[in-house]
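Example 3.
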Amino acid sequence: MQTTTVKVNRNEVVNIILSALRDVLESQGVEELPTLDETTRLIGRSAALDSMGLVTLIVEVEQRLEANYDLVVVLADDRAMSQTRSPFLSVATLADYVMQLAVEQG
Amino acid sequence: MEGSVVLVTGARKGIGRFLAEYYVRRGARVIGCSRSEPDWTLEHYRHFCVDVADEAGVRKMMAAIGKEFGRLDVLINNAGVASMNHVLLTPAATAERIFATNMQGVFLLCREAAKLMQRRRYGRIVNISTVAVPLRLEGEALYAASKSAVVTFTQILAREVAAFGITANVVAPTPIETDLIRHVPKEKIDAIVERLAIKRLGRFEDVANVIDFFIRPESDYITGQVITLGGVG
């Protein structure tokens, strides 16, 4: 697990992502929510979300990071979009990417 | 408009300033931005100094709007630069500058505004094009091309953000007495006016009238459209 001196805590970031994910799924009318945890896939065949859901999730996570931590980041930046291993693969990889951006911002 | 939050880019002067004042008079809370500070102030108006082509600056402004106002109802992408020149005499730096402000700026503002608007599942985006596009005005190739890009961008954006309750439309004004055409010779302007169905220069009010229509809550079934002033089309 990544350690950092910035105010952002990885467990909290995971919780932000999970709660945003839950809200997005509910807003899409998903009645029986699947088990959501760090291993939950965000893209690919077994993804919990469709493509519009992923867009909404990323925006939601950006806004909650901003509201909770004053952390202003663009998650879908050039680096994220060009990585061989997408940071949007799962809740865990997204949390790692958020932590990386937070550390860079200090 | 009472209580609505409206963002106007390029608000320091010209149409932008007119629109800022106009929507304040109509009861909106208006935010404006430009690269430099305006030499005027207004109650219920908040100004940000930001270059619309600067991603970090736009992101920061939108975060501040979210924090301060909690919402954004209307975005009017008015900021624009023009440069009249023959293609063979146009420096690459001019082309870059035109596309940075006119296209990249519109894209960044739309992207960040839509993120804020989708929170409330409501938003109205109005982008500005020009009659130089349908009239294929010589001497304005780069400017018109950048505005043509704005039209296509808006039409696709409209489809992508429809699910969030956001509409995106375009108004394409004729020449209006602003700084943008200050250096254009009078005979050039007269020649353009001659090609319009209604033979006069545009007025700020003509632009505001179309924007009013696009941003009405009742216009929620109107998106991806271009309204050109002066009877050109």
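The interface with chain B takes residues 52, 56, 59, 62-63, 66-67, 72, 74 of chain A (CB under 8 Å). Residues 51-69 of chain A form the longest helix (19 residues).
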